[in-house]
Amino acid sequence: MTESDILATFTETKALLHGHFLLRSGLHSDRYFQAAQVLQHTRIAARLCAELAAGFQGQGIELVISPALGGLVVGQEVGRALDVRAIFAEKDDQSNLVLRRGFTIRPGEKLLVVEDVITKGGRVQQTIDLVRAAGGVVAGVAVMVDRSGGAKLFDVPVRSLVRLDLPTWKPEDCPLCRAGKPVEKPG
C-alpha cells in the first residue's frame, strides 16, 4: 500500500477529519486522526496492520504490547500478522501504565511496542519503560500514524504507516478560534 492509498482509506472511513479540534495536548488543529473510525472496519484494520507489521518481519519479535485504549486493536492485529502473542498495558489509579490480567513479560523477551497514533509519545515511552523494567527487550515501535513531525522520540527504531505533519496552535494563537469556528473535542 502506498501512503496515498492509506490516506485515502483514512479519509473514506472518516478517520481523518477536517474542522476545528481540541487535541489532548490542549492545542488546536484543523485536522484530527480518529483511529477507531478506520479500525472498526475489521478487514481494513487487518490489512493496514499487516502492512505495519511487515516492517518487523524476520526480526525475532516474540510479543507485541500496546498501551490501552488506543493501541488495543492495532496491537492485536499486528500480533496476528507477526503470529505472536499480543498484550496491553493499562492505567492504574495514578495514570501509570501497568500489566494486569495475568499478562507477563519474560526477561530477555523481544517485544514490539504498538500504538495507533503518536504526537509526543508519552504513552509509548511509558510502555517502553514498563517493558524494560520487566526485563524485556524493546525491538522497536510500530504506529499507524506519526504526528510527531519527525521528532526522534525514542531510542529504538520507529515505523509508521504515515507521517502527518498537521498544524497545531495554542488556543490564543488559533486562527480558527479568531474566525469564530466552534471547537470540537472528538477524542
Keywords:
six-stranded mixed β-sheet, alpha/beta, three-stranded antiparallel β-sheet, 187 residues
Q: Secondary-structure map with pairings?
A:
Layout: H1 3-12, E1 16-22, E2 28-33, H2 35-39, H3 42-54, E3 63-67, H4 72-82, E4 85-91, E5 97-98, E6 110-118, H5 122-133, E7 137-146, E8 158-163, E9 168-169, H6 175-178
Parallel strand pairs: 3-4, 3-6, 6-7, 7-8
Antiparallel strand pairs: 1-2, 2-9, 4-5
Helix pairs in contact: 3-4
Description:
The chain is of the alpha/beta class and 187 residues long. Helix content is 29%, strand content 29%. It has helices at 3-12, 35-39, 42-54, 72-82, 122-133, 175-178; strands at residues 16-22, 28-33, 63-67, 85-91, 97-98, 110-118, 137-146, 158-163, 168-169. Strand 1 (16-22) and strand 2 (28-33) form a beta hairpin. The longest helix is centred in the N-terminal third of the chain and has 13 residues, at 42-54. The two termini are 27 Å apart. The mean pLDDT is 94.
Radius of gyration: 17 Å
CA-to-CA gap between the ends? 27 Å
Which series of helices and strands comes N to C?
HEEHHEHEEEHEEEH
Low-confidence stretches: none
Strands in their spatial order, largest beta sheet: 5-4-3-6-7-8
Q: Would you report the number of β strands?
A: 9
- Outline: globular
Taken as a percent bin, the fraction of beta residues is: 25-35%
Percent range of helical residues: 25-40%
Secondary structural class: alpha/beta
Report the biggest beta sheet as strand number plus sense, adding barrel if it closes.
6 strands, mixed
Number of helices: 6
> Overall mean pLDDT score?
94
